[in-house]
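Incident log entry.

Two folding requests arrived from the same account within the same minute. Monitoring flagged them as a possible duplicate submission, but the sequences differ. Recording both here for audit purposes.

Request one:
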Amino acid sequence: MTDTNTYINQLAQTRKDLEAFDPEAWNAFSALVQTTSKGGALPAKVKEIIMVALGVADHCQFCIAIHTKRAIEAGASRQEIMEGAMMAIAMGGGPSMAFMRYVVDACNEFGAE
């Protein structure tokens, strides 16, 4: 089983390092993420599920960990997260299927029901 909290902790440290290195670039990136992630025509939980699928398609354990956690916090169920993430397999084939391991582990670790 993957320790998805480790990915979240590493990502938090990377954020601090990048923010210290170039605060202007970090703030611009952060504003973009916050703006595009908030609810609108698509609820925030749907956007987070999309981000999980994009993390699977791009083979990014960090993205899978943080966006699975945020999807759960936004009210997404395990079924919704898994179905959304499985969409990446249609586009990414076997490698994306293998990265579903991280989605399963994140759902388990963060208590998706």
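Request two (distinct sequence, not a duplicate):
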Amino acid sequence: MIRWMARYSGVLVVLAVFFAPAALADIPGIPALKVTPGDGEGAQEYTVTLQILALMTALTFLPAMLMMMTSFTRIIVVFAILRQALGLQSTPSNQIILGLTLFLTIFIMKPVFEESNRLALQPYLQEEVSSMEAVELATRPFRTFMLAQTREDDLALFMRIADEQYDTPEAVSFWILMPAFVTSELKTAFQIGFILFIPFLIIDMVVASVLMAMGMMMLSPIIISLPFKIMLFVLVDGWALVIGTLAASYGI
């Protein structure tokens, strides 16, 4: 019996290879490329395959969108300046700073995400709006958030560079609003960083003056001032103050 099964198993494999494609050819597949005219003027609907392809392409721009359309830029710049002011080169590590920045960004942007989900994602999942309409609806809460944090002079700068004029800020193109928003975020981050730097700079100057008066010129002031800066930062509950200030700067 075993010899018979071994003898004819090869024949069965060959038959399966030749006849399986013919059997599967009768099964209808998902159309790869198909565009269906929509109800509106010039509107078009794309197949799921094209929608997935567009979604995967859009995901490659997710890091840039995270920095260009959220509070991520301001927070991470402030944390980087704070670490430099404390004199700590690698503590907290970059992974910790990035993780804290990411979760703080999600906390600050939560109302925007919820509004975008209510306006765009849920209607799209319920097939009440098309994919292009969902994208347009999803950008509205982000536009409102970005306009509230963008300075008028930065917005006017990029409008002048692009040689475009708009009657109201709400009508500004997204491609002009994004760089103006990031520029404003960098300005605000450096302003907060400057204020954070002052007390630690004073400690460095006092320690350096004391060491010079004592004739200890070969001893690095950073070694002596670092414990005092850490102690000051802990005593005033520095992390809570910095995070609270960043959240308050967005009206939270």
